[in-house]
Amino acid sequence: MKTIAQLTYIPLYTDHPKEQVQDLLEMAAQHDVEVDVNYLSTSVKGDPDVVFELIREIYDTMAIEKETFRFHVELLSPVEE
User: Fold this and answer.
1) CA 22 to CA 28: how far, in whole Å?
2) What CA–CA distance (Å, rounded) separates 41 from 6?
3) CA 4, CA 46: separation in Å to the nearest integer?
4) For position 40, what pLDDT does the model report?
5) What is the structure's pLDDT at 23?
6) 2-79 adopts what CATH topology?
7) Would you say residue 66 has pLDDT above 80?
8) Hey, which of 5, 15, 42, 61 has its CA 20 to 30 A from 31?
9) What are phi and psi of 55, to 5 degrees?
10) What is the per-residue pLDDT across 32-52, written as a single tens digit (0 to 9) for each?
11) What is the mean pLDDT of residues 25-37?
12) By C-alpha distance, which of 39, 11, 5 is closest to 24?
């Protein structure tokens, strides 16, 4: 079973939002998930434990760095593979 999550990360109050988004895309690439980058969001598909670990890692990383952000996570129904 694979889980699909659509992630939208919106850095607030920054002069370099593209750099922050790029950092998170690189973080996603380090996990065993399929990554599909779209104009306004990124979809990741993989083992549910890995997807949820990635979501937590993104949130924790930005919170530790004291960034102000909005992080939208949309989960789709699991799919069989």
Assistant:
1) 10
2) 7
3) 7
4) 86
5) 84
6) Alpha-Beta Plaits (3.30.70)
7) no
8) 15
9) -60, -45
10) 999 999 888 999 999 999 999
11) 93
12) 11
Contact status, residue 20 vs residue 11, Cβ threshold 8 Å: yes
Residues 6+ apart with CB under 8 A from 59: 71
In b/e form, how buried is each residue of 48-72, taking b as 16+ CB within 10 angstroms? eebbeebbeebeeebeeeeeebebe
Predicted local distance difference test score (pLDDT) of residue 18:
81
pTM: 0.86
| Three-state SS letters, the chain | CEEEEEEEEEECCCCCHHHHHHHHHHHHHCCCEEEEECCCCEEEEECHHHHHHHHHHHHHHHHHCCCCEEEEEEEEEEECC
